[in-house]
Amino acid sequence: MFIGDVAKRSGVSARMLRHYESLGLVRPTGRSGSGYREYSGETIRRIFHIESLRSLGLSLRDVRRALDDPGFTPAELVDDLIRQTRDRIAAETELLRRLHRIGAAEPAGWEDVLQTVALLQALGSKSAGVRQRAALSAGEGVPVPVEALVDAVLSESEPNVAGALRWALAHMGEDGPALLAKGLDSPAAEVRERAVRSIAEIPNDEATALLQGALTHPDIVVCRCAALALGARGVADAVPTLIDMIVEEGNDVDASDALSTLAADPALADRIATGLVACLARDTIGPSARRRLTQALADIPGTTTSRALAQLSHDADRGVALTATYILKLRDAR
């Protein structure tokens, strides 16, 4: 069979067959009287084997080893090909993600494209200072996709950079909360905490709704962070969690401050006072928790609080009684 027939049957061009011959991968069986290369059926099978191995990503050098070395074992080479393929897929996936993000920034021209690419590269820098400057630039209006900022803040461990990223997200559009919400379901505790802290700094109704949902989150850190943020926003749903935080001594000072902020609303002041007093009456509450609850009453206005403090000033626990008495004096002096 001549080279043209082999090329048609195998799908390998005559030029490539000559290249294989120059490398010693295939050899013509002989030549015709006119000088044309002739190939046997065995050589044609070898060509098919070469193409099959090339389809797996093997170099021509590795193909030759595989076909000609009797001691060749493919396991190590296949493992290496798997690694290379995974690396290539990861690189292509990252490129695709970057292209999507550049498109999402809706660049008006190549200058915008270059600016967005530079910012994306800076967000992934090993330098915390470079990442922080990139975050600040994004917050000041340099075009960058919200998704890129969300990924950055969920993976950022350096506090100052994380703060700059949260600030930038708070100045972006409406997509931030929905993207950050996915972080609340992360298997990594640190990612869940970063997500809820970022949501807490976005001042819109969608973020508030997500924080309200986070009050029942199984991760207590997420739950408490959401409660503190909701307290600052004047959302009454946070009251039970904030009281529990005081009982359990989990950010209890911040929780007391949040209750004080909420109690500025007269409609909530009595509800908060009633909740604190109800906790004080539980048999399961220890002495230190009762003192913290009593201290929390200090900034809660209203007659319910005053009556509770008057009763607590005679409490069997001397620490509680002294605390209540001191608070009453301060309230009388106002």
Automatic annotation (TrEMBL):
Keyword list, A-Z: DNA-binding
InterPro entries referenced in this protein's UniProt entry, alphabetically: ARM-like (IPR011989), ARM-type_fold (IPR016024), DNA-bd_dom_put_sf (IPR009061), MerR-type_HTH_dom (IPR000551), MerR_fam (IPR047057), PBS_lyase_HEAT (IPR004155)
Domain of life: Bacteria
Domain HTH merR-type: residue ranges: 1-69
PANTHER family, A to Z: HTH MERR-TYPE DOMAIN-CONTAINING PROTEIN (PTHR30204:SF93), REDOX-CYCLING DRUG-SENSING TRANSCRIPTIONAL ACTIVATOR SOXR (PTHR30204)
Protein name per Swiss-Prot or TrEMBL: Nodulation protein NolA
